[in-house]
Structures are given as C-alpha cells and as structure tokens.
Amino acid sequence: MLDTHDIVAIQQLMAHYGHLVDGKQWPRLGEIFAENGAFDVSAYQAGRHESLSAVIAFFERATHPPAHHSTNLFVYEEAGETRAWSKYAVPSEGGRLYGGDYKDVLVRTTNGWRIKERVVTARWPEK
Fold it and tell me: Which of 34, 35, 60, 121 is within CB 3.0–4.6 Å of 114 for a Cys-Cys bond?
C-alpha cells in the first residue's frame, strides 16, 4: 500500500525527470530510470529502449524540444504494480505545443523510486 511519503517521492521523481532532460544531463538518468528500465516512444516512431544504458543512448542521440512540462500526475496501484499517469506538453521549434500521456510503472529501489517502464503516447502530435 502506498503512503503519502511514497506519493510525494514519486511526484518528485517525475519533476526531476523534466529538469534532467531539459538540462541534457543524460548520465544522471539513473536517478530516474531503473537499471532494467524501459522507455517506449513508439508513438513517435522512435522505438522502445530497454535498459538504462539503452535509454541514455537514446537520449544522447535524439532531438529534444526546448522544455518538458508534466501535469495531472496520478499515482495508483494496479495488478500489484505501482503506476503513474501524467500528461506532458512540449513546445516545438515553431512555437506550437504538442503532447500526450506518460504511462509509467514504478519500482522502489534501494536508492528510491525509479521508472521501470515509461510509455509515451501522443495526444496532440506535432504537424
């Protein structure tokens, strides 16, 4: 059962993600993703990346928007897993916003909560 401390820690983790990604601090993504973490950006034809090293390699070579904003974070338990569901919005080079959902599975590690799987879905694709 999640308690208030867990929910706050998960909210902090999610906020930290945006700051690390905006700062292009790829080596620090281990503060966000589990060693066996996965990042699925198939919605943007960018594949699924399994393992922390694969996630870091993806971020190192990907084109990134200038800022990442997450909202509406909902933390819950389902099927014996801790999950989070949030919305994201990012500006494009042309000044348009695009975004969608982050659907996460989280795991508690000896170093705190980490993302075991993040699936990115597109709601407002860039056109």
Answer: 34
Let me know: does 74 contact 86? Beta carbons within 8 Å: yes
Mean pLDDT (the chain) is: 93
Let me know: does 37 contact 48? Beta carbons within 8 Å.
Answer: no
Angle at 61 between CA 94 and CA 34, to 5 degrees: 110
Query: Which tens digit of pLDDT belongs to each residue from 20-59?
Result: 999 999 999 999 999 999 999 999 899 999 999 999 999 9
Determine the Cα–Cα distance for residues 101 and 98; give it in Å rounded to an integer.
11
Q: Is 80 left (phi over 0), alpha (psi -120 to 50) or beta?
A: left
Q: Could you give the CA distance from residue 126 to residue 123 in angstroms, rounded to a whole number? A: 10
Tokens 């694969």 belong to residue: 54
**Number of other CB atoms surrounding residue 93 within 10 Å:** 9
pLDDT of residue 127: 52
Span 74-123, pLDDT tens digits: 999 999 999 999 999 988 777 788 899 999 999 999 999 999 999 999 98
